């Protein structure tokens, strides 16, 4: 029966398409609180990245819990950076006639630029690594695949929000976009519920990027196992690999975006960041850090959090003082202590008994009479000491 229906449909000149439906909604009300799929995907991605990143850090010889410690600095910076990049590149959505600038703070409605998230997240990670005194490049290598996996999970949030899709298409895997309405029947694409009627069918670019990210995650893990990459070079490969996929995806999109010379700004960003990542990979140090290099050089028991500014300063100052003390100790012989106080001048040594006066070799060996200029006879040595003749021919007493 089904075969006959398909045959009749094909004969009628139409095609049978298996389009991907969008979710009917992306927000569910749980009492007074809205549960947003976008925020949930971001949170799940962060948790997975921290968990897997810590496993990879320990496998490289690092201390358990270090990734979570540094993430407390990196994650807030990353969220702020992602939002800032989105607002800066899509400012027309929040500023101008009829716009509400306060909505620029509504991060739960979507809109995180990965470029800003990685940049400011990297700044936060650098601060965390400075605080806990571990090498940032090695930390980046450990968390590179987990970060990209978190990005893939986050793309599911774009699916629920019906955003980041491409141009209209007739491909069988095209994505159906539904209008959504609130309880009053007003159009509300972000918080409303769809009526099940597709408005258009588009390229599911979010899905393309998700699948590309998973492929690059697999390749990064395999490359890391085979070649034991370190010193930040695996992180550079992650950045370069992501840029390739993002550049292609941007070519398929036609949603509202800032353009430069007719080209989407994200395409420019992807190209420039790709070149920078490849340059770092080529010129960075080869090999991998030893487990000893991954141990936190922090005072025992010190564990400041990002919001403990006073504790951060105290621990940093104490760690620097410990470094100076260690450096000073390395310049002394074993068992020798470093004396910081100024010592008193040494007493002049008493001349030893029967010691001979030192010879001033700057004076001539043969004295002359000051009046006649004739040489005076050499004095005979006193006592029982015999005169010794040195290698230079001078008489040394």
Keywords:
397 residues, mainly alpha, two-stranded antiparallel sheet, two-stranded antiparallel ribbon, 10 strands, globular, disordered N terminus, disordered C terminus
Write a structural description.
- This protein has 397 residues and is mainly alpha-helical.
- The protein has nine helices and ten strands.
- It has helices at 2-11, 37-59, 66-89, 114-132, 136-161, 205-227, 233-252, 265-283, 309-330, and strands at 27-30, 33-36, 175-177, 180-181, 193-194, 200-202, 259-260, 263-264, 388-389, 395-396.
- The strands form five sheets. The chain has a two-stranded antiparallel ribbon with strand order 1-2.
- A hairpin with a 2-residue loop joins strand 7 and strand 8.
- Helix 3 (66-89) runs antiparallel to helix 4 (114-132).
- Residues 1-16, 334-344, 358-365 and 378-397 have low confidence and may be disordered.
Lay out the secondary structure.
Blueprint lengths: L1 H10 L15 E4 L2 E4 H23 L6 H24 L24 H19 L3 H26 L13 E3 L2 E2 L11 E2 L5 E3 L2 H23 L5 H20 L6 E2 L2 E2 H19 L25 H22 L57 E2 L5 E2 L1
Antiparallel strand pairs: 1-2, 3-6, 4-5, 7-8, 9-10
